[in-house]
Amino acid sequence: MYRVPKKTNLSDFELEEELNDAVGFSRVIHAIANSGKLVIGHNMLLDVMHTVHQFYCPLPADIINNTSLAELEKRLKETPFNPPKVESAEGFPSYDTASEQLHEAGYDAYITGLCFISMANYLGSFLSPPKIHVSARSKLIEPFFNKLFLMRVMDIPYLNLEGPDLQPKRDHVLHVTFPKEWKTSDLYQLFSAFGNIQISWIDDTSAFVSLSQPEQVKI
Higher model confidence: residue 101 or residue 58? Predict the structure, then answer.
């Protein structure tokens, strides 16, 4: 919260200028929110956290925070996807996908937008008759609104910003303790008879092991 300066000899204009300086970039955040435009991100949980922390309020001290954008962009150039045709504006050669300026903020944002268009248009192929171009306000996209992707959380793939999060069953998850010397390979060998497993380390001597088939838990 902004506090009015203790100085009493400031003019109204000076007070307004100081207030504007204090509000700063948060005005941009409010403008984006009020515009009603979609905000598209790639693994953007950390971006949202930084934005909240810097321009809204401090985050809790105990928050713990890839898929490759380049690999995603390449995949969306292949069948069955159909990437949009975009011509770079004159004088802006860096935004040509043939030159790839990956990890440059503006270019990454540009590529994220292209990926979104490709995926949205792909959803249109399931309609009858199919649609080549899908609007950002299409009902097809609404199920993905206000969802933040969560990495490495297999059964809760996203954080829901406008409703309850998914509540998956966890009866296929075992809590395992073992000697400190054990490695991931030892756990895989221990459960080798049960097919694919997912291991989530807790500390040096314990981990959660998820079985792919819940009926195997009793065994």
Answer: 58
